[in-house]
Each structure stands twice: as structure tokens, then as C-alpha cells.
Specification:
GO molecular function: hydrolase activity, acting on ester bonds; metal ion binding
Number of helices: 6
Oligomer: single chain
Protein name: Succinylglutamate desuccinylase/aspartoacylase family protein
Cofactor: Zn(2+)
InterPro entries: AspA/AstE_fam, AstE_AspA_cat
Keywords: Hydrolase, Metal-binding, Zinc
Bound molecules: zinc ion
Shape: globular
Number of domains: 2
CATH class of the largest domain: Alpha Beta
Number of strands: 13
Distance between the termini: 36 Å
Length: about 280
Amino acid sequence: MRVEQLGEGTPTVAVVAGIHGDEPGGVSAVERLIEASPPVERPVLLIVVNERALEASVRYVDTDLNRAFPGDPTQDAHESRLAHDLAERLEGCTVLSLHSTQSHPEPFMVVDQVDPLVERLAARLPVESVVDTSDFIQGRLFAAVRTIEVECGLQGSDAAAAAALRLTLAYLRAMDVLAPDVATELAEEFGVGPLDDPDRTETPVYRLAEQIPKIPDEDYKVLVDNFEHVREGERFATGPTGDVIASESFYPVLLSADGYESMLGYAAQRQRIVSSPIRE
Ligand SMILES: [Zn+2]
């Protein structure tokens, strides 16, 4: 685990990348920020977490780190000990955790509650939607420390790496770590485009309702796009036993043929809209 701090004092803000070793985009964003070492208004922790898994380009070495919190220092599993160490380092921090998916190219935010902080960040981060995962937080970083996860795009893509940088800069600006002009200059320097999208005035919130199971090691094909409404009775995937039909209407989230071992992804309901205030 690589832990760096910008600024003096005890940090209450952190950015974490590389919880999963096969998601390099967030890691390159954090490394570039460490290298640039910009002036900060308040201290921030920048952490690259699972270096062993990153080196091997695998999701995890022994067990999924984002199912291992709060962790246990006496366990043999690498990720159990790592979860414990990371939770300890992050105590008292509000954390942005950078991830990427096999299911959706556009950035979205994953949260365990929709409160004023999340509404503020939803309005100020370049994300197209917010996913409320509050029924499914067991073992995840959410369970250990106040966390905002962002899915930056497709695993291993340049677009996900650029989005990770843009999201990190927008987060650090929203949390008053980076002065607005410093964040804007860095975005230009890194070539990741503007931090604001003036055309986006509202952000939908989807709440994950249930997991859509699959049989491990069988071939599936997903036939619909994430966040696009699936009607009751609609065929949304094919698998070893034929068509997979929606028993009720839902919005697919994190749906992909190969993203998970024993599920295709989640069925969500669209809950509400967070509107963006006029940007300052
Ligand atoms: Zn991940």
C-alpha cells in the first residue's frame, strides 16, 4: 500500500485507488496527482491500495478486498490484512474510492446513502448518475469509513483513466482541498477536459434492489444497456438455459456477462432526481 499526503496536519479527506488490481485507471490518476503535488488548502491522503494485485493485474490475490472490510490483521489472506490497515489509515476521512467496470463507459457515483454531502457531490462531479447501493454494503469500504465510490469507465481504457483524474480533481475542489483555479489549471495540464458540464442540470438516483444471478463459468450475453429501462417480460440476456426474461420492470446497473462470478449485475429502481444548483 502506497500512502502519500499533500499538505500539513491530520487529513479528513482521502482519495483511494487500486482497491481492485485489474482497475489501473484510478491508480494512474492518483500517481499523476502525487507527481504534480499541487498546493492544497487542507491536507489530503492519496493512497494506492492493493499493489500486489496491481502488479499481477488481477482483481485480488486471495479475496476481494471490497468484500473484506473491516478486515482482520490476524488472517492469512492478503486482502483481509490490507482491509484492516486501510480502514485504520482512513479513520476520520471522507473518501473518494476510484473504480472501473466491465459494464458501462460513462462515470457514475456509488453511495450508501443519499444525504446533503452526496447531493452536493452529485451536482459538482462529472457523473451521469448516482447509484444507491445501501442494501449491498457488507464487507465494502462503505462499512468501514465514509465513502463515495466512483465508477470511472471501462477497465483498462484511456477514457477511464482520464475520467478518474477529472473526477478526482472535481472531488478535491468540492471538498475545498484544491482551490478552484488550481483544479482548473491541473485539468488543463493533464488534458482531461473541463471539470463542469454546463448542460447537465439533473442527476438521477438509482437504488439497487436485487442481484441478478448467473451460473458461474457459463456463457452469457447481455442484450440491454445499463441505466436503460427494461420492461416486464423483456428479454435482457441469454444464457446456458436460454433467454433471461425480466419478471418485473427494472433499470440494469453494473450488468455485464463477465463482471462477476455468480451474478450478471443488479436490478435497480429509479428513485429521484438530484438537480444541480447553478455552478459557482
Ligand atoms: Zn473496483
